[in-house]
Amino acid sequence: MLGLNKKDFSLLLFVAFLAIAAPFLLNPFPASSSLSFLNAGYPALMQLFAIFAIVLIGFNILFGLTGYLSFGHAAFIGIGSYTAMWMYKLLNFNVIIAIPMAMLVTGIFALLIGWISLRRTGIYFSILTLAFAEMAYRLSYSVLTPITGGETNLSPDPVNDPMVLKSEGGLTVPHLFGFDLNAKTTWEVGSWSFTFEAGYYLCALILIISFYIAIRIFRSPFGMMLRAIKSNNQRMSYTGLNTKPYMLAAFVISGVYAGLAGGLLVAMDAQAGAERMFWTESGTIVIMAILGGVGTLLGPILGAGAIKYMEKILSSISESQLHTWLGILPDWLEDAMVYILANFFVGHAWHLTLGLVFMLVVIFVPGGLVELGQRIGNRFRRKKPDTAPSGETTPAE
Amino acid sequence: MEEILQQVINGLDRGSAYALIALGLTLIFGTLGVVNFAHGALFMIGAFVAVLVSDLLGDIRELGSADDFFKLVQVVEDPTQTDFLGRPLSVETSYWVVWFGENFGNWLSDWSVPIAVLISIPIMIFIGWAMERGLIRHFYHRPHADQILVTFGLAIVLGDLIRAMYGANPIQTAMPESLSGPVDLGVFLGYDVGTITYSSWRIVYFFFSMTIIAGVFAFLQFTTFGMVVRAGMADRETVGLLGININKYFTLMFGLAAAVAGVAGVMFAPIQAPSYNLGMEYLVPCFVVVVVGGMGSLPGAVLAGFLLGIVQSFASLPTWKTSLVERLGLDDGNLIANLIIGVDQIAIYLIAIIILLTRPRGLLGRKGVMED
Question: Tell me, what's the ipTM?
Answer without folding.
Answer: 0.80
